[in-house]
Amino acid sequence: MENAVTKVLFYKDGFFGYGEKGDFQYWSLAHFIPLILFGIAIFLIFRFREKLKSWKHEENFRFIFAFVMLMVEMSYFWRLLYVGSSEPDKVIDLLDKLPLQVCEWTCIFASFMMMKKSQSLYQLCFFISFTLGVFPLLTPSVITMAGPAYYRYYQYWLEHLLPMVGILYMTFVHGYRPKLKGIISATGFMAVLTTFAMICNLNIEGANYLYLAIGTTDGGGSVMDIMVKIAPNVWGRLALLSVIVIILFFIAYFVYIGITKLYNKAVKKANL
Predict the structure, then answer these.
(1) Is the whole model's pTM more than 0.70, yes or no?
(2) Distance between CA atoms of 110 and 167, rounded to whole angstroms?
(3) Above 90 in pLDDT, residue 65?
């Protein structure tokens, strides 16, 4: 019985393993459901923001939420240790799995942001999550082999959506606001992360950190796949990405300002 359970869960074709390529399809029901649940969560937080702020267990809730985010992030690596690579004859090389992806650090930073109520981490997480963090939601190319029958599907969506929920929780419940100077810290972080990613990509065989080397490894049609086609040279790709990231940071800030003004205007009009 124990061997049967282990096989169902931990073998490569078990719950913690992999399906066939195409198991997850863009804009299918499996794609829409996490986004719909995300929208519902944000609506509920906004709707009950005052009650959440005065809730006697609010601090405990933030710590639990942060702990869940950390466990979601760590479970990605724990799963790899149990299951291994999606390719039958390939052994996992931990040099290919260093924490040098944007989503990984956003999840970690958002956890500490919620525990410490850190304004500086909020600025960093806001600008990264609502710019670069949007692309994996639109084109989740790295889970084409993991639909709802596999743990990786749930881990992926939680890893990308929970930090956004946490950021908006701090926005609505605790009144945190993005500031223009937050673009500086977000740009600085991306510069440091990209530097390490490029060093690893150039010195570790097969490394593809930030997908700057060859786009997404499975050719799943992500934004980085498009950038690889536009700028085949890795340095040209890096320059293009740098410009796009900074532009996106400013767009995120002004979109937030615009939405806030429209909301305040609507509230003022409703109270007249």
Answers:
(1) yes
(2) 7
(3) yes
